[in-house]
Amino acid sequence: xxxxxxxxxxxxxxxxxxxxxxxxxxxxxxxxxxxxxxxxxxxxxxxxxxxxxxxxxxxxxxxxxxxxxxxxxxxxxxxxxxxxxxxxxxxxxxxxxxxxxxxxxxxxxxxxxxxxxxxxxxxxxxxxxxxxxxxxxxxxxxxxxxxxxxxxxxxxxxxxxxxxxxxxxxx
Length: 171
Fold this sequence. Notes:
Layout: H1 5-19, H2 28-35, H3 39-51, E1 55-58, E2 64-67, H4 76-83, H5 101-104, H6 108-124, H7 127-140, H8 145-150
Antiparallel strand pairs: 1-2
Helix pairs in contact: 1-2, 1-3, 1-4, 1-7
């Protein structure tokens, strides 16, 4: 199973929007700058998240994006299914086309179990929980999450080309 850049960027964008939920719509350029998401990916990701009903958009000068659901109602699996073209599988792809399938089929139940466990874990992890965990890590480092997320984004040239704040661990 491979978590693609599209999924990682979608999680970062959604967590940024979730952080600002209830405050007002978040502009895509601010999300992109804060989270270090390339703008060409940003439009594709936001369109897919909107089409799947996870976010809504408001047009106009004060427009932007906001959650369509509460953060605790959105699972990581919902995000994966919104932005990826094909569902994940830990097993063989197109086994009927695999000449060695006859010898591989004895492992199919094991791969199905692995896939099931991964999907269940992604379904049980909400954006709200991930956001709370991220804030906990930030506070543990002695930083203030409000200062990091509420400041007006600077251009990447002002931050040395690095995102101001990456909510998803390892990003």
